Each structure stands twice: as C-alpha cells, then as structure tokens.
Q: What sequence folds into this?
C-alpha cells in the first residue's frame, strides 16, 4: 500500500495564481521521501492540502488508502505535520505543547504522557519540559515541533523545511533522530530546497517546480541526473 497517493492535484488560489498544476505523486509505505524545489514551487501548498490546512481545487489525495474527501478523520489520524512556522502557544511549557496536541486525537492522557516523555527524551528536551516555549532556541523549538507531531504515533510524518535556519550540530542530531524513526517504520516525507539534506536522508526524491513534478527517481539515479 502507498502511504501517499496524489492524483492530478490542482490548486488555484483566490486571485488566480495556479500553485499546483495537476501533480501526481506516490510515496510508498516505509519510504524516506524528499520533495525538493525552490521557493514558490508549491511544496507548502501540496503539504497544506494533504494535511487539510488548504482546500484543493481539483484532484484526489489518499493516505494509506483513505480518501481525503471521504474520510478526512482517518487521514488525520495517520498524519503528523512539522510545520515551517510555529509562533503559537509561546507561553506554554514544553510538555503542555505536546500534551495539548494529543487532545486533538482523542488519546488518553496517560498514553499521551508516555509518548510525550519518550519523544522529548529522544529529542533531548525532557530536561526542558517545564520551560516556556518562547525561552527555547530555534533548534529546540523545531525539535519540540517534531515531538508534538509524533504524540499520536502517526504512520506518516511530514516535515516542511525541517532544518531551515538550524545550525549544523542540531541539524545532524535531528537527522539522526529522523533516520531512527524511519528505521522503526514511520514513513517520512520532507520538503527542502537544500539538496544536501535530501541526499543525506532520503531514498526517493521528486523535484517540484512551478507547481509541477518535473522529475521523480531513486536518490542515486537523481544525483547522476542533476
Ligand atoms: P513553496 O512551499 O515551494 O515555497 P508555496 O506552496 O508556498 O511554495 O507557494 C506556491 C505559490 O503559491 C507561490 O507563487 C506563492 O506565492 C503562492 N501562494 C502560496 N500561498 C498563497 C496564498 N495563500 N494565496 C495566494 N497565493 C499563495
Ligand atoms: P547520527 O546518525 O548523526 O550519528 P545518532 O543516531 O547518534 O545520530 O542520534 C542523533 C540524535 O538522535 C541524538 O541526539 C539522540 O538524542 C537522538 N536519538 C537517539 N536515540 C534515538 C531513537 N531511538 N529514536 C530517535 N532518536 C534518537
């Protein structure tokens, strides 16, 4: 089964800008997949549609066989999103940022606490659990957003430009974490405009430009083409 199947996906924003022009994309279960493209290519729009933050104009989206139009709740349960921007809940302590998120998925407080502790420990944030989010560095905030996205144990984790503006050491440790998560079975898709990130992490890659997927291949084959 594929983790994500996008067919002829189109998005026209109010005002007429065509951000996606009939995108076809398949990501297999267990993959670590990169969506690479320059700013304005349509990456955030595509991810926004898959995660129900943006309405599509036409086309279909399936996540683990669940159709987004027919069963949005099933799609939501399968998905975790690490957004690019996170300027909300700044006065909440770290642990509450994660537990609040669990509230959207109807999992018990006890289970939420177990998962929150596990991921905050793995991401080196457990000692900061009582710190308000606004006191964290940029790299810590980003790791917190990963823990938050994982609290309901999604089968597919999507990260929008995960390490933009993060220093090299934090980036390496985030990469290590994501590799391990993928080895444990979570399918991962990340968007990036940074080839080295895609190359270091991902097995398969699609290139998106001006709202169209222009090329898609296994990573090694793509590197020979670029
Ligand atoms: P990327 O994530 O690859 O940088 P985006 O999906 O953010 O690309 O943007 C794709 C195109 O859609 C860009 O031309 C952008 O200006 C436009 N766009 C994005 N969001 C909106 C919006 N809310 N309203 C109108 N145009 C938008
Ligand atoms: P690298 O692959 O770069 O050598 P490591 O695999 O050593 O990196 O781990 C890097 C980071 O991942 C560490 O900061 C660690 O906290 C975190 N990490 C350790 N164990 C796990 C795990 N089981 N799952 C996810 N992340 C982990």
A:
């Amino acid at each position: 089964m594929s983790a994500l199947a996008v067919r002829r996906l189109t998005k026209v924003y109010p005002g007429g800008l065509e951000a996606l022009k009939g995108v076809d994309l398949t990501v297999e279960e267990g993959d670590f997949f990169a969506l690479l493209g320059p700013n304005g290519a349509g990456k955030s729009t595509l991810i926004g549609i898959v995660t129900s933050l943006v309405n599509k104009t036409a086309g279909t989206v399936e996540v683990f066989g669940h159709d987004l139009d027919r069963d949005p709740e099933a799609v939501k349960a399968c998905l975790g999103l690490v957004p690019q921007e996170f300027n909300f809940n700044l006065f909440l302590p770290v642990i509450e940022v994660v537990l609040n998120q669990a509230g959207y998925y109807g999992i018990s407080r006890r289970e939420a606490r177990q998962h929150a502790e596990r991921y905050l420990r793995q991401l080196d944030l457990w000692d900061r659990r009582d710190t308000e989010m606004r006191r964290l560095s940029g790299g810590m905030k980003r790791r917190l957003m990963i823990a938050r996205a994982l609290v309901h144990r999604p089968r597919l984790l999507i990260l929008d430009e995960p390490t933009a503006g993060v220093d090299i050491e934090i980036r390496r440790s985030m990469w290590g974490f994501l590799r391990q998560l993928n080895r444990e079975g979570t399918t991962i898709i990340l968007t990036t405009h940074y080839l080295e990130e895609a190359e270091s992490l991902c097995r398969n890659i699609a290139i998106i430009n001006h709202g169209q997927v222009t090329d898609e291949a296994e990573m090694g084959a793509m590197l020979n083409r670029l």
User: Anything to note?
Assistant: Residues 122, 124, 172-173, 175-177, 179-181 surround adenosine-5'-diphosphate (ligand 2) (CB under 6 Å). The first strand starts at residue 2 and ends at 12.
